[in-house]
Design brief:
Elements lengths: L7 H17 L1 H25 L6 H7 L5 H13 L6 H32 L18 H41 L4 H7 L25 H6 L16 H20 L4 H7 L35 E3 L28 H5 L4 E3 L17 H8 L7 E7 L14 H8 L8 H8 L3 H7 L16 E8 L5 H9 L4 H11 L14 E6 L9 H8 L3 E3 L1 H6 L10 H6 L6 H15 L2 E7 L23 H29 L6 E7 L5 H4 L14 E7 L5 E4 L3 E2 L3 H11 L5 H10 L15 E2 L2 E2 L1 E6 L5 E6 L5 E4 L7 H12 L1 H24 L11
Parallel strand pairs: 3-7, 3-8, 4-10, 4-11, 5-6, 5-7
Antiparallel strand pairs: 1-2, 4-9, 8-9, 12-13, 14-15, 15-16
Helix pairs in contact: 2-4, 2-5, 2-6, 5-6, 21-22, 26-27
């Protein structure tokens, strides 16, 4: 009589035991080993492929084998764990461990490759707990999942076909190495059971079994396996010696390999990255061995007690800013500032500070600035998202043009397309006054203003770039101080005495990078974002598709809100500081409507991305033109200072980089910058500048044009000398008393890279604060390739970067030993 049909519980037990037996089968062990082997090798090869430009050919050929040592150790351990064990307990433990590890490493490899394809960088697994980012679009998620599953499937499929070969290959290697060991050692680790390449059937039912035993009992029954060892293969002695010598050579190469951060990076193994902890560079080590007298940096700090101005110590104590702002002063904290227990940046204490406020205003603009021709009632700052300098305005000799030519079979751009490219950014061309190299059209008349052609951003992360542009103290905090201490009133007919209205405006979501947390910290009390627009009647928002809705309202809808804002300012007699961040030029470069095909066959991959970027630039230029038109219609264009600057660049056309994250390519740093005013002559600054000079320049312009009343002049006059950056309306100082003007850029995310350059030399050093880089080797390489002068500069740059990192830690109250602390 046969057993009754099993219930759900019995079925689950059957499945569980089936999976358990499967894990213990020889074919499963070989398959799991193959998954681990292939995943580890693919992950390392992909890293080398993705960052091959960081390696020299000789470095890769000579030291490349040492990059795989960690993977090799994992493979050896996996091979050991997938062998047959006499102990059933150890067999079960080994099966579970290897199966889970295979699942983890194959999933991580697939996710890492997919993330790199879509974002341009690898996943930083050790920072996942601290990583915060808003939800990506549904399309991006589906695309990333599709690639990840594809890679995952390829790993599983290739492992299925290669399992026996890989296991036999690794077993043969272990056999050869073991042949040089004493017999007692090899016997201890050898198995008395058959190797993994022998396969057996698994009974799934008992339909052919005359006994009345349940199939589960049959699965539980141990398999009968021979008790003798299979005969070992006899490998020739020469082969064993060569294989063993290669392994020994790789180990020796690893021991003598230079201590280089690049080699360390390529040696990191994917499964261990979750457990890596950052080794923050505290300035110890290699710079101490470098030549030169840098005692002027030793034991120095730029931190000091913040000056206690009378206007800052008003009895109402109403200025409320953030902890890191010097404006966090009220009657309860004056004593702390007085005794020096609260410190802030003081340029007089900064050994790297080279102020130029003592220099004259540039002759070409001094006249209209001092004679009252230039009036600044409103200040408008537009942050141009992901806009690199060589495409704003779009020029005939930029790298994007090279990509367009390369996309065409004959390498020639048709005349109609050339004309369209020549008219891609007419407003940017007008605002900068630069020659673009296109001869197919008439040039627009220059708008007037100062264009900086050699500007670097202070941070390749948008929010860090923003703080570097308007802070130290932040401009909204200053304007709030003027409103309360500058004797400002809307009852006056003199607009220089009108109160200020700082406002932040963007049409996309404030959840991007948690921007909503930063805005109030910067001092913006009036903020417009997609969320605030959606909470209103959305009277200016056109009907949008689901994709348009996800990416945020297009930038152009803000022109209606700007008109309302200007009308309110006129009615209420207020002055505007309007800060705006564009977003259509952000990855994935979404623009509404049809896109022009500038690149031939731009349907997917890198070509599609570059083509979308070009379309986004054209859209952004149209939007800038709309902004200028809004202010012209309001009759205040001649009294408005427009500042436009890229938050960071993008290396997409050069190397396919989709973001400025961890991308040290110069195009990630080089951004457009101009101060536009119709009453200024059009001039170009070619000297190196950085975006931390923007706010000092704004303050200097307000003072020199007398665009504020007397009380406000006094306040701005007190604050202007406290900034790091030089004023760009004055002659620059590139080198003073043998000390250079240094410019630092932090790369995003924070704590990973910094870039340093000096204003007097066309060199640039990119450093990794988390690693103690072998500066000696770097200087030797520079000396050999470029000569003594660049090598001397690199030596100085290493020292000043070393000091700057330590002092920046102190300034932001950052503990490198405990990076998670506030």
């Amino acid at each position: 009589m046969r057993n009754p049909v099993p219930g759900l519980g019995d079925l689950l037990v059957t499945i569980a035991k089936f999976l358990h037996i499967c894990l213990l089968r020889a074919w499963a062990s070989a398959y799991i080993f193959a998954v681990i082997f292939i995943s580890l090798i693919i992950s390392k090869c992909f890293r080398i492929f993705a960052y091959w430009e960081s390696l020299s050919l000789w470095g890769l050929l000579f030291w490349g084998s040492t990059f795989f040592l960690a993977e090799f150790l994992f493979i050896v351990v996996a091979c050991f764990l997938t062998r047959s064990f006499e102990s059933r307990v150890w067999q079960n433990v080994a099966a579970v461990v290897t199966a889970l590890f295979a699942l983890a490493v194959s999933s991580m490899t697939a996710a890492n490759i997919s993330y790199y394809i879509h974002v341009g960088v690898e996943i930083h697994w050790h920072k996942l707990q601290k990583f915060r980012n808003p939800a990506p679009s549904a399309g991006l998620v589906l695309s990333a999942l599709a690639v990840a599953f594809l890679v995952f499937g390829l790993i599983l499929a290739s492992a299925y076909f290669a399992k026996s070969y890989l296991f036999r290959f690794m077993s043969a290697l272990l056999e050869m190495w073991g042949s040089f060991l004493p017999a007692k050692v090899t016997d201890r680790f050898s198995s008395k059971k058959p190797p993994a390449q022998s396969y057996e059937q698994i009974a799934l039912n008992n339909s052919d079994d005359d006994s009345d035993r349940d199939s589960i009992e049959f699965l539980d029954e141990p398999q009968h396996e021979p008790e003798h060892r299979l005969p070992e293969r006899n490998h020739p002695l020469f082969v064993r010696i060569v294989v063993t010598a290669c392994v020994v050579l790789i180990i020796v190469l690893r021991l003598v390999r230079p201590s280089d951060a690049t080699y360390t990076f390529f040696s990191e193994s994917l499964p261990l990255e979750v457990f890596y902890t950052s080794k923050y560079w505290l300035g110890q080590g290699s710079v101490e061995t470098l030549p030169g007298d840098f005692s002027w940096l030793e034991e120095r700090t730029a931190l000091d007690a913040f000056p206690t101005f009378e206007w800052l110590q008003a009895s109402d104590g109403s200025i409320g800013a953030t902890d890191w702002s010097p404006f966090q002063v009220n009657m309860t904290r004056v004593a702390e500032y007085s005794n020096g227990s609260v410190t802030h940046y003081n340029p007089l204490k900064d050994p790297l500070h080279t102020p130029n406020l003592g220099n004259d205003i540039l002759k070409s603009i001094a006249g209209p600035i001092r004679d009252g021709t230039v009036k600044i009632k409103h200040v408008i700052l537009i942050k141009l998202e992901s806009t690199r300098q060589d495409v704003w305005p779009f020029r005939a000799d930029n790298y994007v043009m090279k990509r367009i030519k390369e996309s065409r079979e004959d390498g020639e751009i048709p005349a109609a397309m050339m004309e369209a490219l020549g008219n891609l950014t007419p407003n940017a061309e007008r605002l900068t006054g630069w020659e673009t190299g296109f001869n197919t059209k008439e040039r627009p008349a220059p708008y007037g203003g100062i264009s900086a052609s050699n500007c670097f951003t202070s941070g390749t992360y948008t929010l860090k770039s923003l703080t570097g542009t308007i802070c130290g103290p932040c401009f909204p905090h200053i304007l709030d101080s003027l409103n309360q201490r500058g004797n400002l009133t809307a009852n006056s007919e003199d607009w220089t005495s009108w109160p200020w209205h700082p406002m932040w405006m963007q049409s996309h979501s404030a959840t991007w990078d948690y921007h909503w947390k930063l805005n109030p910290v910067l001092g913006f009390k009036d903020v417009m974002t997609k969320e605030t627009i959606d909470r209103t009647d959305m009277k200016y928002i056109p009907e949008e598709t689901e994709e348009e809705e996800h990416h945020g309202h297009e930038d152009k809808v803000l022109k209606y809100y700007m008109r309302d804002l200007l009308a309110e300012a006129k009615q209420n007699k207020t002055r505007l500081f309007l800060a705006h961040l564009t977003h259509n030029t952000h990855n994935p470069w979404f623009t509404p409507g049809e896109r022009v095909q500038y690149l031939s066959d731009a349907t997917e991959g890198d070509k599609l991305n570059v083509n979308n970027y070009i379309n986004a630039l054209a859209y952004q230029d149209q939007w800038v033109g709309d902004v200028l038109e809004v202010f012209k219609e309001a009759g205040v264009a001649d009294e408005t200072l427009f500042i436009m600057v890229g938050d960071h660049g993008l290396s997409l056309p050069n190397n396919g980089g989709l973001t400025a994250n961890h991308d040290s390519h110069v195009t990630s740093f080089h951004v457009p910058l101009y101060f536009s005013h119709p009453k200024l002559p059009q001039i170009e600054l070619t000297n190196p500048v950085i975006s931390t000079q923007i706010l000092p320049t704004i303050l200097d312009l307000l003072i020199q044009t007398k665009s504020v009343n007397e009380q406000s002049l006094a306040i701005l006059g007190d604050l202007l000398p406290l900034y790091e950056g030089q004023s760009m309306i004055r002659a620059p100082i590139r080198n003073k008393n043998g000390r250079r003007e240094w410019q630092f850029t932090t790369m995003n995310p924070g704590g990973t890279w910094i870039s340093v350059r000096s204003a007097d030399k066309p060199y640039r050093l990119v450093e990794h604060p988390e690693q103690n880089v072998d500066i000696d080797a770097l200087i030797d390489a520079v000396q050999a390739q470029y000569g003594p002068e660049p090598a001397k500069w690199t030596n100085e740059a290493a020292h000043v970067a070393h000091w700057w990192i330590k002092d920046t830690f102190r300034r932001w109250k950052y503990d490198p030993e405990n990076p998670g602390s506030p």
